[in-house]
Amino acid sequence: MRAFDTNRWTGLNGVILLVVGIGIALRVPSLVLVGVIGIGYAAFTTFGDAPEPALEIDRTVSVDAPDPGEEMLVSLTVRNAGETWLSDLRIVDGVPPGLEATDQPARMAAALAPGEEATMQYAVTAARGEHTWEHVRVVARNLSGSRERYIERSVETTVRCVPTFEAGSDLPLRGLTTQYSGRVVTDVGGSGVEFHSTREYRAGDPVKRIDWNRRARTGELSTLELREERAATVVLLVDSRVSAYVAQDPGERNAVERSVDAAGQLFTALVGSGDRVGIAAMSPSDCWIAPGAGTAHGVRLREQLGSHPAFASTPSDGKFYWPLWFNRIRRRLPRDAQVVFLTPISDQTAARTARRLDAHGHLVTIVSPNETGDTSIGSRFARVDRAIELMRLRRAGIRVIDWGDEPLRVAIAAAERRWSR
Amino acid sequence: MVTVSEARAADEQPSGEIDRTPTPRSAIGAVAFAAIASAMLALASIDGAVLAFAGTIVLAVGVWLARLRIVSAGSLLLVGGIVAAGVTGATAEPLLVAAVCVVLAWDLAETAIELGDRIGRDASTARFEAVHAATSLAVGVGSAAVGYGLYVATAGGQSTTAVVLLLFGAVIVISAFR
C-alpha cells in the first residue's frame, strides 16, 4: 500500500516560526538558537519515507487439535528479511473470530535491524470448530513517525477443535418409530416387556406368551400381547441463524454453542441406544447428515458437530431464506423421522418452523436454551415474549424443554415430570 | 438478549479486552523530560520556570487521561516557558537543553498514547520505545550541538542577523527536501 502522512508533527513549523519570530523581534539571540533545534526536528521528519517492509512471518500454535477450553500458546515470529532498518513496526495478528487472546493482546510493536527477528506470544482458549487465522496486519513508519504504510500478510494457520461430547442426557422420545427394535415403547402389541393386551391364540404364537393362568381358569388358550419396543429415527435440528446467536452477556456462551453441546450429548445417548440419528442445521450454510446408526455414523456426526461452519461459535455468512430451506429439509426428512429442534426461540420463525414440521407429521420436541435475562426492560420483554411463545407451542402439542442454566439432564427430567402428568 | 454477532462485529476482539491506556515507560519518560525542562528553566529564570512547571503538570494530566490535545497544550505551555525565560534574559545553554527536553517530552507522550491505543498497554513494546526515544534524543542532541556551535562561532563578533540568515538557509534546504 502507498505510504501516507500521519500528521504527527503538524504544528511544529508554526511553533518554530513563533519562537524565532519573538527572538528576532525582541532581539534575543538565545531564542533564535532554540529555533535551530526545532528546525533539526523538522528536518528529521522529512527524512526518509515509510519503509516497505520485507518481512518473513511465521506462526506456530502449540497444539493442532486442542480440546475445547484448552489453552493454546501461539507465537508469531517476525523477521526483517530486507536490507533496511525497520525502526517502527506495529504488528497485529489476525486472531480467528471464534477465538480470543486471553492473557496478552495479539499485538506487538517492534524495531528490527536487518536480519533481526522479534517474537510475540499470546494464549488463546480453544473453542469448538475450525479456526483459520486471518491476515497479519502490519503498520510500518519511518524513523520520525511522520509517514506510515499499512500492509497485510497472510500466514496460513488452521486449528481444528473437535469436542468429545459427554453422553448421558437421555431424551424421552416420542412415539414415532421405525420397524427396528429399540427402546421406544410403542402402542403396538407384540413382544416386549410391558403388558399391552390379550388376544385369542393363533397357531404359531410363542409358547412363552400364552396366558397360562387364563388357560387354567377357563380352559381357553389366549396370547399375551406386550408393548413392542422399537427404535426411532431422530433428526437433531440446530437453529444457527444469525438471530439464534444470543447470549445473556456478550462474553458468555451463546445459545448456538449450548445447542450444539446439547446435540452432542443427545446424539451420543441416542446412538448408544440404537436409534437412528441424523443432524441438520437451520442456517445459511447447508448442513445435513441423513439418519443412520452404528459407530462410523457416530464418528461422522461428531466430526460434523465439531467443525461444520453451521455449528461454529460465530454466525456463518450468507443469507438465510426460510421457504427454500424449509422445502429442502422437508424433502430430506424421512417420513418416520421425529425432530429434536434445538433453538433459543429468539423469533417467530423458529416457532413457525416447529409448528410446520409438526403439521407435516414429524413429531417435534423443542430443546430451548433460555438466554433471556432480566437486567433491562428490553430483556424482560424478550423473556415474556419467549414464555408466551413456548406456551403456544405446548398448547399446539409440541413438547418443549425450557433449558435454563441447569445441566441439560436436569431440564429434561423436569420436563418429563410434566409430560407424564 | 444481546446479539453476539453485533457485539463482535466491531472488532474481532471486543473492546475492553485490550487495556488501551498509554504505555507506562514512554509516559513516565515524557513526564520526566518535561520536569527536566522545568528544572533547567528554573536555573535561568523564575518566570519561565513557573510557566514550564504548569506545562509539566498539564502534560502529565494529558498523558494520564490519554488525551493528545491536553498533552499538546502542556507542551505549548513549556515552549511558552522557554520564550519567557529567553525574553527575561536567560543564557542560551539551559534554553537549549530545555528545548530538546520539551520536544522529547511531547514525542514520548504522543508515542505512549498512540501505542497504548493501537497496540495496548500489555503488549511487548519495550525495545520499540527504547529505539524511538533514543533516535529522538540523538536528533535533539545533534541539532543542539550544531546550533550551539553556530552560536559560539557567531557570538564572537557577528550579530544575530548572521544566525538568522544561516537559519533561513537551513529552512530553504529543508523545503527543497520536501
Overview of the molecule:
- The complex is a heterodimer of chains A (421) and B (178).
- In chain A, α1 runs antiparallel to α2 and α4 packs antiparallel against α5.
- In chain A, β14 and β15 form a beta hairpin.
- In chain A, the strands form 4 sheets. In chain A, strands 11, 12, 14, 15, 16, 17 and 18 form a 7-stranded mixed beta sheet that branches. A 5-stranded antiparallel beta sheet of chain A has the order 1-9-8-4-5, with no helix packed on it.
- In chain A, 30% of the residues lie in helices and 33% in strands.
- Chain A folds into 4 domains: 43 residues; 107 residues, Immunoglobulin-like (Sandwich); 51 residues, no CATH class; 189 residues, Rossmann fold (3-Layer(aba) Sandwich), CATH 3.40.50.
- The N and C termini of chain A lie far apart (70 Å).
- With 178 residues, chain B is an all-alpha fold.
- Chain B has one domain.
- Chain B is built from 7 helices and 1 strand, in the order βααααααα.
- The interface between A and B is large, with 75 and 64 residues.
Walk me through the topology.
The complex is a heterodimer of chains A (421) and B (178).
Chain A lengths: L3 E2 L6 H14 L3 H18 L8 E7 L9 E10 L5 E9 L12 E6 L4 E9 L3 E4 L1 E8 L5 E7 L4 E4 L15 E24 L11 H7 L3 E18 L6 E2 L7 H18 L3 E7 L5 E5 L2 H13 L14 H11 L4 E6 L5 H12 L4 E6 L7 H19 L3 E5 L4 H13 L1
Parallel strand pairs in A: 12-14, 12-16, 16-17, 17-18
Antiparallel strand pairs in A: 1-9, 2-3, 3-6, 4-5, 4-8, 7-10, 8-9, 11-12, 14-15
Helix pairs in contact in A: 1-2, 4-5
Chain B lengths: L1 E2 H6 L14 H21 L1 H20 L2 H20 L4 H27 L7 H30 L4 H18 L1
